[in-house]
Structures are given as C-alpha cells and as structure tokens.
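subagent[fold] <- orchestrator: predict structure for attached chain, return tokens only, no commentary.
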Amino acid sequence: MDESLFQTTSTDNLRFLLLLTGPDMDLVEEQLQHLGVSHIGYGVMPKHYPLMEKALFDTLQDTLEDRLTPKVKESWNTVYTFMSVTMMQGAFASLKAEVASSKRQ
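subagent[fold] -> orchestrator:
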C-alpha cells in the first residue's frame, strides 16, 4: 500500500482533489451530491456518516500509527467533512424534491 497518501496536509489533499477534478469546485460538489443521492438507494442514512468517519479514522490510526499526527488527522477530517456534508446535502435535496412531488400528485 502506498502510505504516502496518508502523509499529506490539508493543502496537499486539496491540491490532489483539484488535480483529479480540475479547478471547478462546483463540479466536485455536484458529483458528491449525486453520490449522496445514490447512497440513498443503498440504505445509507445520516446516522451512518459518523460511523463511516469513525471507521475511516480507526483505519488511518491502525495504518499510520504514530504518523497520524494532529495535522494529518485534521487534513483528513477536513476532506471527510466536506465530502460527507456535501453528500448529505444532495441526499436531503433529493428527498425534499421527492416529498414535494408526491404532495402535488
């Protein structure tokens, strides 16, 4: 496993994200919102996101041990928070639209 992925700062993580997606953060947010919508179909609920966060950080701790510095942990927390919040926004918007549509029928 390439553990260098875990030894980055939040700036490095952001640069990597931009490298993958280009400088258009609107596109990143749109894709994450769609991902949140698709997770509804898998039965993912808001209560599952903190469980995933804990699993991620437990895995990072097990993998990195003492290399999971506060700065590295903060960087991963920033990325995970951005992703999970954006995914939940997409899921909630989709459910809200679905409820509004069913009320009109």
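orchestrator: received. Logging for downstream: The two ends are 52 Å apart (CA to CA). The chain has a mean pLDDT of 85.
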